[in-house]
Amino acid sequence: MQDAYQIDKSRMRQSFHRAAKQYDAAAILQRQVRQEMLSRLDVVKLAPARILDAGCGTGHGLQALLKHFKQAQGVALDIAEGMLDRSRALFPWYRFWQTKPQFVCGDIESLPLATASVDMVWSNLAVQWCNDLDVVLQEFRRVLKPNGLLMFATLGPDTLKELRAASGESHTHVSRFIDMHDIGDALTRAGFSAPVLDVMHYTLTYDSVESVMRDLKAIGAHNATAGRAKGLTGKGFMQQLRQGYEGFRHDGKLPATYEVVFVHAWTGTQPYTAPGTQPVQFMPRKTVSAGE
Fold first, then answer.
1. Class of 9-156+175-203+257-266 per CATH?
2. Beta strands of 11-55 (E only): which ranges?
3. DSSP states of 255-281
4. CB neighbourhood size of 130 (10 A)
5. Measured between alpha carbons, how far is residue 154 from residues 5, 117, 171, 256, 263 in Å?
6. Residue range 206-253, pLDDT digits in tens
7. Is the pTM of this model over 0.70?
8. DSSP states of 187-213
9. CA 240 to CA 118: how far, in whole Å?
C-alpha cells in the first residue's frame, strides 16, 4: 500500500518553480529561521573551503554564508530551476570574491556531488520535503569531508497544527513532519557525531483562512502528498476549513504555528563509508627469519 504522505517530487518541483518569482515576499518564516541559523555560526569554529546550500531557494542563505565565510566557494542546489534562476540573480557580486558559486539542479535525496567534496552542508527548511530522512542524511554524510559540519533546520510535528485540525481526516492536507528525537536517531545511523538539536516555535498570524492558504501557495508549499484530494476541493471544503479554523482565532487573528527543529552535527575524523560496508585494514607484513 502506498504511503499517503509520500511526496510527489514532480508536483513539488513544479510548485516551487512556479512560486519562485513571488517567493521572497511571502517567505517570512524562512527569513526568520535563516537569521537564527546564521546567529549560531558565531560559536562554530570552521573555515570551510566549499559550502553546499541544499535546497537553496532564492539564494539568500548562500549569499549570507559567503559574506560570512569570505574565502569559501558556494554550491547552490535546488530541485526547481525557477529557484536557481532567482539565486543566480543574487550573485553579480561574485567577481569580487575568489570563486563563482556553482548552481546545481538536483534532489537532496540523491545529491549530484562527489563524495567528500564539501566542508559544510547548510539547509534551511528543505529537508521536510524529502521522503526518506535516512537517505537524506546518508547523502549529506557522503558529500561531507572529515571534520565537516552539517547544519539544517526542518519542520517538526506541531507545524500547521491548526490547518491540520480544521481540514479534517478525509485526505492528507498537511505533510507529515518528523520529531526531533527521531531526527537525532537518524543522525546517529548516518554516522554523524556530536549532534545538537533544539526546537523553536514560530507563530504567523492572519486575518483569514484564505490569507493562510495564499501565503502557502506563494512559497510553493502546495500539498504534494499521495493522499491529497485529487480533484478540486470546492466550496464545501473551504467552508469546513473556515469553520474549523475559527476555533483558533485569538485577539482577532488566526494563528499558523510552525515547529522548527534546528540541527548541527559533525562528520568526525573518519572518511565516509557506505552503509553496510567496513573499511579494509591492511596489517603490516611480518618477516620471519630462518632461525625462528
1. alpha beta
2. 50-54
3. EEEEEEEEEEEE--SSPP--TT-----
4. 23
5. 17, 23, 23, 16, 8
6. 999 999 999 999 998 765 554 444 444 557 778 889 999 999 999 999
7. yes
8. HHHTT-EEEEEEEEEEEEEESSHHHHH
9. 48
Please state the φ and ψ torsions of residue 69, each to the nearest 5 degrees. Answer: -110, 85
- At 62-111, the pLDDT tens digits run 999 999 999 999 999 999 999 999 999 988 755 555 578 999 999 999 99
Lookup: cell for 249: 482565532
Domain residue spans of the chain: 9-156+175-203+257-266
Tell me, letter by letter, the H, E, C secondary structure of the chain.
CCCCCCECHHHHHHHHHHHHHHHHHHCHHHHHHHHHHHHHHHHCCCCCCEEEEECCCCCHHHHHHHHHCCCCEEEEEECCHHHHHHHHHCCHHHHHCCCCCEEEECECCECCCCCCCEEEEEEECCHHHCCCHHHHHHHHHHHEEEEEEEEEEEECCCCCHHHHHHHCCCCCCCCCCCCHHHHHHHHHHCCCEEEEEEEEEEEEEECCHHHHHHHHHHCCCCCCECCCCCCCCHHHHHHHHHHHHHCCCECCEEEEEEEEEEEEEECCCCCCCCCCCCCCCCCCCCCCCCCC
